[in-house]
């Protein structure tokens, strides 16, 4: 598929907003679950593998009951690239860093792709340039940078190497946001693509583990771990089904704002489940982030020209 031409800026409806909130909360809930599993000895790659595979199996079974699975071989490249950018890289990295910096701060990494996604979309002509949206997204990213900046009132400098590794999460997600919209296969449903993307991500992780000779690390034992994985798989199936509906119904930039939901939700879950605490700088960053969300999504004149408000 060719890259779409410039279209009027997408203005979210109430259904899209609630879908964004719901999917964001589900993804944020995966982080404390991942931390619990990793603390019980599961490796990040193993957890990411079983999460993707389990979510794909559950969603595929649901679709087969509705006789609407029909995943076609011609979509293999789409599944592979989508699985790499949305599942394999971001989840494996996020699950690796969550045990070192906490669920709350890991969640902030998901807010960073928004400005990068918008910049790429504008450059490729997929969306028009709007100053207010650009400023709002910049505020949101600035809030995340503020949260991530090592200082006595925020986080410890010891976490900086893990945060730098964590930047692979937003970079991968931004590339994936653009790719999935620009190359959406003709005739494919969101559910079909969600199954394919999850299977693609699981397959890529398995190939990496196989090439490294560490297949045994995928073995999971214990009732508690399997209970966590089953719950994670259910959340994954529901969350990524909604994720692809958002991808089809909205714009890449609106979809990228999932991170602005994941960040505060992830911090809240970190407080509730693990007693994580944050200094004044972190909460100041959250306020700045939310201010950016409001600015980026205020209604404006519908125009396809650059610089429109």
Automatic annotation (TrEMBL):
Belongs to the EamA transporter family. It is found in: Membrane. Residues 16-148 form the EamA domain. It comes from Marinobacter profundi. The lineage of its organism: Bacteria, Pseudomonadati, Pseudomonadota, Gammaproteobacteria, Pseudomonadales. GO terms for cellular component: membrane. It is a multi-pass membrane protein. The chain crosses the membrane at residues 17-38, 44-63, 75-101, 107-126, 133-149, 161-181, 193-213, 225-243, 255-274, 280-298. Keywords: Membrane, Transmembrane, Transmembrane helix. Coiled coil: none annotated. This is EamA domain-containing protein. It comes from the Bacteria.
């Amino acid at each position: 598929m060719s890259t779409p031409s410039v279209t009027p800026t997408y203005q979210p409806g109430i259904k899209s907003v609630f879908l964004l909130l719901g999917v964001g909360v589900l993804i944020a809930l995966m982080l404390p679950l991942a931390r619990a599993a990793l603390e019980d000895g599961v490796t990040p790659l193993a957890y990411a593998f079983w999460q993707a595979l389990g979510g794909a199996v559950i969603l595929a079974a649901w679709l087969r009951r509705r006789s609407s699975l029909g995943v076609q071989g011609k979509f293999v490249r789409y599944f592979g690239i989508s699985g790499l950018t949305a599942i394999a890289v971001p989840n494996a990295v996020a699950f690796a860093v969550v045990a070192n910096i906490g669920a709350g701060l890991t969640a902030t990494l998901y807010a960073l792709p928004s400005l990068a996604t918008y910049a790429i979309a504008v450059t490729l002509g997929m969306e028009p340039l709007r100053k207010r949206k650009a400023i709002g997204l910049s505020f949101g990213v600035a809030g995340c940078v503020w949260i991530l900046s090592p200082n006595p009132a925020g986080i410890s400098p010891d976490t900086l190497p893990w945060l730098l590794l964590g930047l692979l999460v937003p970079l991968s997600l931004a590339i994936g946001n653009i790719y999935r919209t620009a190359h959406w296969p003709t005739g494919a449903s969101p559910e079909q693509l969600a199954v394919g993307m999850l299977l693609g991500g699981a397959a890529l992780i398995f190939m990496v583990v196989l090439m490294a000779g560490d297949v045994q690390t995928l073995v999971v034992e214990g009732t508690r771990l399997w209970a966590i994985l089953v719950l994670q798989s259910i959340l994954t199936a529901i969350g990524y089904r909604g994720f692809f509906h958002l991808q089809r119904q909205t714009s890449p930039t609106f979809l990228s704002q999932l991170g602005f939901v994941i960040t505060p939700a992830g911090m809240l879950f970190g407080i509730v489940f693990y007693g994580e605490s944050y200094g004044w700088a972190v909460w100041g960053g959250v306020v700045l982030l939310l201010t950016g969300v409001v600015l980026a999504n205020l209604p404006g004149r519908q125009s396809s020209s650059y610089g429109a408000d």
